[in-house]
Write a structure and sequence with these properties.
single chain, six-stranded mixed sheet, 12 strands, 25% strand
């Protein structure tokens, strides 16, 4: 059908107005909170072993810089507060008495300082630390809110046999916050696919992975974390003193820093349809996965090839 010039331009203007209206409605939809977003900062810092005062001073300095740059959520490496001294490969002279002495209870003075820092800067802050629970010690990570309150804690569940005095955790909690639903893993936990999958099934949108280990290889850090993000439709933040990076739900590294330089690695986290669709595991059939619960699969059927 052909239109005269007046009718053509009238229809074109109406179409343009409709497109602008859709754009406005879409923007309003986002502003209304349907799509949450925030700035996540990983602190690629090398702590001093056994020196909580020095490590807190460095944390304070970099946290202030990150907050000034717009960070809403700040993450430290594993065991940052005391310098990750619970690994006997890194600390050959480690004893339980000395380790227990440096460990911090959840109501300890250094945790209170961290709560105060988060409250002053009005940010979420994840701190990795050796946690003292009575006469036991755990490798833990805690999230503190902008109000200075403890909103979540996770205890490392898997080790490489190099943390002789740490009591292992056995739960994988997910925490709801105004920024989104958050889960945590610590270093070696990331190597087992079940851990991230549990968090994703429980609704985690972002998985925070403070780490410190000796092995800094692309296969067990970059590639592994990209796979965890992609297969679970989540963001993953891997925060290590020598390799800090953030991966989006498509498995793409969106921010990264490698090497000895201490710095802030920051990215915008957008909790959009890539997470909500959960395409990566929509077709799960958990009723046929019972074999994965076998504790030890060391005896294999005879090879009849």
């Amino acid at each position: 059908m052909k239109y005269g010039p007046v009718e053509f331009w009238s229809r074109w203007i109406r179409r343009l107005c409709w497109m602008q209206l859709q754009l406005v409605m879409s923007s309003t939809f986002v502003l209304a909170g349907e799509v949450k977003s925030f700035n996540l900062a990983g602190l690629k810092l090398i702590p001093t072993p056994w020196d909580r005062a020095a490590n807190f001073a460095k944390l304070e300095h970099y946290a202030r810089k990150a907050a000034a740059a717009g960070a809403d959520f700040i993450v430290t490496p594993e065991g940052y507060l005391e310098g990750y001294v619970g690994n006997d490969k890194l600390t050959p002279s480690l004893t339980l008495d000395r380790y227990r002495e440096i460990a911090e209870p959840v109501d300890g003075q250094w945790i209170k300082k961290i709560e105060g820092l988060a409250r002053e800067l009005k940010v979420y802050l994840l701190i990795g630390f050796a946690e003292r629970r009575g006469d036991k010690v755990c490798n833990s990570a805690m999230i503190v809110s902008p109000a200075g309150r403890q909103v979540g804690k996770y205890t490392k569940a898997h080790t490489a046999g190099d943390e002789p005095y740490n009591q292992k955790g056995s739960e994988f909690p997910v925490f709801s916050t105004p920024l989104g639903r958050l889960g945590m893993l610590i270093c070696f936990d990331r190597q087992l696919p079940e851990t991230a999958r549990i968090l994703a099934i429980k609704g985690a949108e972002v998985i925070l992975v403070p780490a410190f280990g000796l092995g800094i290889e692309e296969i067990n850090e970059d590639i592994l974390m990209r796979a965890r993000a992609y297969e679970n439709s989540v963001y993953v933040a891997h925060v290590h003193p020598k390799n800090t990076f953030i991966v989006d739900p498509g498995g793409t590294i969106v921010a990264q820093s490698r090497g000895e330089t201490e710095e802030i690695v920051m990215a915008r986290i957008t909790l959009d349809a890539r997470i909500r669709s959960r395409k990566a595991f929509r077709g799960r059939r958990p009723e046929i996965y019972g074999e994965i619960l076998n504790k030890n699969q060391t005896d294999f059927p005879e090879d009849h090839r």
